[in-house]
Design brief:
The chain is of the alpha/beta class and 179 residues long. Helix content is 43%, strand content 15%. The longest helix has 20 residues, at 67-86. It is an enzyme of class 2 (transferase).
Length: 179
Amino acid sequence: MSQSLHGSAPNPGSLPKAVVLMGVAGCGKTTIGKKLAAELGWRFIEGDSLHPPENIARISGGQPLRDADRAGWLAKIGAEIAASLLRGESVIAACSALKRTYRDRLRGFAPALQILYLEIDPEAAFARVQRRKGHFMPASLVDSQFADLMPPDPDENAVALDAKRTVVELVQEAVALLR
């Protein structure tokens, strides 16, 4: 079951919507985001694909990103979100958005940004990242993600979803929240 962090679901309307699926590595941002976007007919932005080579090298080498490393990456994601909205497209972006300042930066591109926070515990996230194939994020960095994590505040237009539930359940719940 979802837990509203702001008191109500997004307002329905005809304007395009922007959603960020946030959370630590292994919470399911990409999997849920792709399926959710397909179900809704929205554009999907894979935030990890927008990392510059320097960030990928740093992460692959077992070094967590610093705020300065994330600045340009967040700007790219924000610009992609804004471009979608300008074209009249609703959009879902997968982005860790671990800190309030990162989410605020993204809101600079889309003030009505809806946050879906995929909440998971460290053990489950570690196990998922460890099983993952073909991704540059090593399981050794999961703890650093939790160290940086600031769950959304009540004023952030956010809903927490239990990321340990099935993909089908999470997509169904998110669709109900966003329609």
